[in-house]
Amino acid sequence: MPIKRTGFPTLFVPQLNVYAKALILAEFNWMARFFTMGHRFNSQNTYVDVYYREVVKEQKMEEVDFDLFIKKYPEIANKGFSNVLKYLSKELTDSRQRSYCREIFNRMALHISNAINDRYITIMLDKFIDEEVDVILCDTYKAQNLKTAKQINVNIAGSLPSLISENEKYEIEHLIITGYLNGTDIKFLREISYGHDKSFNYSFSQGKLSYLNLENASIVEGGEPYLTTKTEYRGVVEKKVYYTKRNIISEHMFTNTILQNMILPENTILIEDEAFACCLQLQHITIPKGVKSIGNAAFSNCDLISISIPESVTSFGQFAFQSCNQLKNIIIPSTVSFIGRGAFEMCQSLEEIHCKNTMPPTFEKNGNNYLFDEDYSISNIEKNCILYVPNGSARLYNASEAWKNFKNIIEQ
User: Fold this and answer.
1) DSSP SS3 for 348
2) Hey, is 26 helix, strand or coil?
3) Whose CA is closest to 315, among 333, 337, 331, 330?
4) Low-confidence residues of the chain, pLDDT below 70?
5) Paired residues of 176 in beta bridges
6) How far is it, in rounded angstroms, from Cα 33 to Cα 46?
7) For the chain, give me the number of helices (H) and strands (E)?
């Protein structure tokens, strides 16, 4: 059965301790039981079972000593599966382990959802990932950051630089901001996250900011330009300045920063062109449900491992995820009807695309191809990546000019 591994390259699969492995198996078993109650479901010979066995093999879980595990966590044997994620969180030692566990639970949830094909169960699984896995595992990483994070409320837009002393601004690694941010504030955030301000001289600061939580902040108009660029063509110098727009992650806002983990403001409605382009260390980003579109090259040349596009998004632009070399899987919601050319060009690690629209999204053509590599009539991605589509829609995807070159189109 053509199912892929977790999405982490074999050489980079984090090594988990015996207790973490046993807790993962316990949570997998609970998921398979709880989310299939009331359905005639036998996991044998399904993607749920195959994926379970892939993770077991990848982590060498056959060697787990469950007697040793029960001695440490007897309450699981006595009381069942409650608090498994909390115990697991204690056994994980770094962000890579947390990212790995988040991914395997997300993929297991995806396979259960596709196997059951029940909208209510899908909603429950989404809630489980968002409110339990992300909160307890990934937000435990977030919570650990909270302990060391500087938390600032910006009551007056433009005042952020005055709220952080000169001595500490280049030492802050984790930052949580509430309140109102204009161009002056964004310029300051770029400075302390290693962003450069002029495209000519590439003068970087010594900032260390890698975790930025703007969930309860609002971007407003006004203030200084957050970025100034200069280009020269045949002796003519063109200067361009960028200002903030209300509730929009606007052009180049966080380009060339060293951010690794970012949570966007909850009221964000658009992500504009190249907003995160060349954020070479950006692995995780939380996109809120109100975002309507993702602009051209918005996440090009990032280090994203996986990304979930919210149901509010209807389109994303050309080269949106170009050269995201670590991107393993992407979920394209049913609301997306158009994708710009080369959206996944040079994403050679892509293993799974889950397209939820029963009607194939249309694409702008990219040379000889639509989605992927301009240099090839049929790209390696289309040869090797599995395209999952809704039940009854494979015929439409096979007939679609944009999708027909996929060698593995599977209905779920």
Assistant:
1) coil
2) helix
3) 337
4) 1-12, 43-45, 76-82, 138-148, 195-205, 365-379
5) 151, 213
6) 14
7) 12, 19
Q: In which residue are the tokens 């999405």 written?
A: 7
Look up tokens 């982490």; give the residue.
Answer: 8
pLDDT digits (tens, 9 = 90+) for 214-269: 999 999 999 999 999 888 778 888 889 999 999 999 999 999 999 988 999 999 99
**Quick count: other Cβ atoms within 10 Å of Cβ 181?**
25
CA gap 214, 344 in Å, rounded: 27
Check: pTM over 0.85? Answer yes or no. no
Q: Please check whether residue 295 is in contact with residue 341, taking contact to mean a CB–CB distance below 8 angstroms.
A: no
Q: Which residues, other chains included, contact 123 with Cβ-Cβ below 8 Å and sequence gap of 6+?
A: none
Residue keyed to tokens 């997306």: 336
Q: Which residues pair with 151 in a beta bridge?
A: 176
Whether 88 contacts 137, CB under 8 Å:
yes
**CA separation for the pair 266, 269 (Å, rounded):** 9
Whether the CA torsion 372, 373, 379, 385 is positive or negative: it is negative
Cβ contacts of 30 within 8 Å, gap of 6 or more:
80, 81, 84
**Of the candidates 352, 360, 344, the residue with the CA atom closest to the CA atom of residue 384:** 352
Q: What is the CA radius of gyration of the chain?
A: 22
Among 321, 170, 350, which residue's Cα sits nearest to residue 258?
A: 170
Strands 227-233 and 236-242: antiparallel
Strand 306-308 to 362-363 pairing: unpaired
For tokens 């044998």, name the residue: 44
- Beta sheet of 338-339, edge-to-edge order: 248-249, 270-271, 293-294, 315-316, 338-339, 362-363
Tell me the one-letter amino acid at 198: K
CA separation (Å) from 279 to 21, 162, 244? 32, 26, 19
